[in-house]
Structure prediction request, 312 residues.
Amino acid sequence: MVRLFTSTPDFKRCVTLETVTAKSTLKAARDALGSSLFEMVAGPDGPKARERIHHTPGPRWFAEDRPIRRVHADASMFVGGLRALLLQSLHPLAMAGVAEHSNYRDDPWGRLQRTSTFLAETTFGSAVDAQRAVDRVRGIHRRVHGVAADGRSYTATDPHLLEWVHIAEADSFLKAHQLYGAAPLDQAGRDGYVADMAEIAARLGVVDPPRTEEELAQRLDAFRPELRSTAAARDAARFLLLTPPLPLAARAPYGALTATAVAMLPLWARIPLLLPYFPPVELTVVRGVGRVLVGGIRWALPAPESPVSAGR
Prediction:
């Protein structure tokens, strides 16, 4: 009788060892990629901030079952954030404030890190931390004012401009989640997300923010007559899409990420920014690549742990 080698104890131990080694290598690669991504969006102090945000005891603004937690914890936020920046640039006064008072060219990742920290603090942090984050942003807004290229004055405390920034973000985050999120929301969930975002917007100074998906679409449409192409907006789009300060190895994945974000913009938002429009390719190739890319980010970045207390 011939005994097959595959049944020997030595072979089984060898296979087991190789499996364990492969899993360890995969975990190491995942941890390294996740750490790099997390540092990019949260900064070098990200782990410490994450610990504070998610584990400081006390009530939260949003309970654990609220839609805002599901959306803001998902990797689709990477795509939604890029779309929001492009969309926001179309308002001349909002873009003037960014161009004249932001160092996005010199420190683009710093701006990203501050924004992601604000979203984390208000979504997941204790009520004390969330309010402190809002107060900090309102303090910054009071120092942002000037005169745009068209001669109109602006101030970041203007409730109308605050509303534009808010609805561009809410619309972008929601659309990205519906297309690329791990668990897209039903209609009640989408309305709930807009209502959750409205609570933060109201605290920032937005007057009567939209509270349903339909209201959000109506407000976005109402802003369209105010939106236009400006040199500052086109310049920001070129920087964001074509010349970000990234290592060579990261350029291709980032290019796929930006293509995914651009593909979510409506035609009326692309024309002023001189962005391409290829519906057949976007609905097939770009969307497929986007799902793979967002899925990869989701695999690399572990979901936030539940806080000590998430009750209101």
Remarks:
- The first helix runs from residue 9 to 42.
- The chain has 14 helices and two strands.
